[in-house]
Design goal:
Number of strands: 7
Shape: globular
Distance between the termini: 24 Å
Order of helices and strands: HHHEHEHEHEHEHEHEHHHH
Strand content: 5-15%
Helix content: 40-55%
Length: 319
């Protein structure tokens, strides 16, 4: 492995010292797939694993950003350094676009103890942006105590990303068809904590009962998923939500499942990175290699089936 260049070495030093501009630059390098960015991650990786990573998922419009804004306030009240990483699958063009209307989060832009970044997931393999998890690692290395990952939506792409958190919070709201869909779509396998936001709605208690019904179908030992009613716009229930997130953290730490969870997540990340790079290599060969083009011509003319062609392509890679 090549040693990091001057840029990476200098950035690493500033990043580890908690410099916000160094963190912003480092994430941009990784996002742009710049070799200096990967060298930088290599340099700081041994200093990661200290931050508490909490993922937030749920249908659009349930008030995740407002809730996260309140939790940021709560963490700052306890003098904890916080980073927020919002992953937006629908915004591949402007990295900051998603934050435009995030009033609750913009309250924190000038706070030196808070760093907020929005990234597009870019529709990469499995919907998982390679850069997303590297960005979370960089936030961790820069000395943040809490890293909040937020995704827009509850599709497979969001689940992939959110699965890399130590604690996953599913945010739902009453009276929303989307929320009920989330219950039915197996999303209930993800969360460690459930927040029912906008809880002044008349259907709140009905929804809480429905969620309890779905949860009762799952395993009954180990951690029991708590349901917290919140009214983020007024800050109600935020203290209790923060407590439940902290309790989950203590639980997985004591059970030894935090280390297990992180090991699984890192293994998945290694496989995802390798798969993404293999895919790009294959795509380049499909474009540029005449032998591969001939193989595809065989498929197009129905002389060779796609699975057999794929096997031949993989044989070439291995051989």
């Amino acid at each position: 492995m090549a040693a990091p260049g001057n840029t990476a070495a200098d950035l690493a030093e500033r990043l580890l010292a908690g410099d916000k501009r160094a963190l912003a630059r480092a994430i941009s390098l990784v996002e742009n797939d710049d070799p200096e960015g990967w060298a930088l991650v290599r340099e700081v990786y041994p200093r990661t694993g200290r931050a508490e990573v909490v993922g937030f998922t749920g249908p659009p419009g349930v008030g995740k950003s407002t809730l996260i804004g309140r939790l940021v306030e709560h963490a700052r009240g306890r003098e904890r350094e916080v980073a927020v990483l919002s992953i937006d699958p629908s915004s591949p063009f402007t990295q900051g676009a998603l934050l435009g209307d995030r009033i609750r989060l913009t309250d924190h832009f000038l706070d030196p103890g808070v760093y907020i970044r929005s990234m597009a997931s870019r529709g990469s393999l499995g919907g998982l942006s390679e850069a997303t998890l590297q960005a979370a690692l960089l936030m961790d290395a820069s000395g943040k105590d809490d890293v909040f990952l937020e995704t827009v939506g509850v599709g497979q792409a969001e689940v992939d990303i959110i699965d890399h958190a130590d604690t996953v919070v599913l945010v739902l709201m009453p009276g929303s068809g989307d929320s009920i869909q989330a219950l039915k779509a197996g999303v209930m396998e993800i969360p460690d904590v459930i927040a029912v936001n906008k809880a002044d709605h008349p259907l709140t208690d009905t929804m809480v009962r429905e969620i309890r019904g779905v949860l009762s179908l799952g395993p009954q030992q180990g951690w029991r998923v708590p349901i917290v009613k919140t009214e983020a716009s007024r800050g109600e229930g935020v203290e209790e939500l923060a407590e439940k997130i902290a309790e989950h953290r203590v639980f997985i730490d004591e059970q030894g499942t935090l280390a297990e969870r992180r090991r699984r997540n890192l293994m998945n990340e290694v496989v995802a990175l390798a798969a993404g790079r293999l895919r790009r290599k294959l795509e380049a060969e499909v474009r540029d290699d005449p032998a591969v083009q001939r193989l595809l011509d065989e498929v197009a003319s129905r002389r060779l089936d796609p699975a057999s062609a794929a096997a031949k392509l993989l044989e070439r890679e291995g051989g």
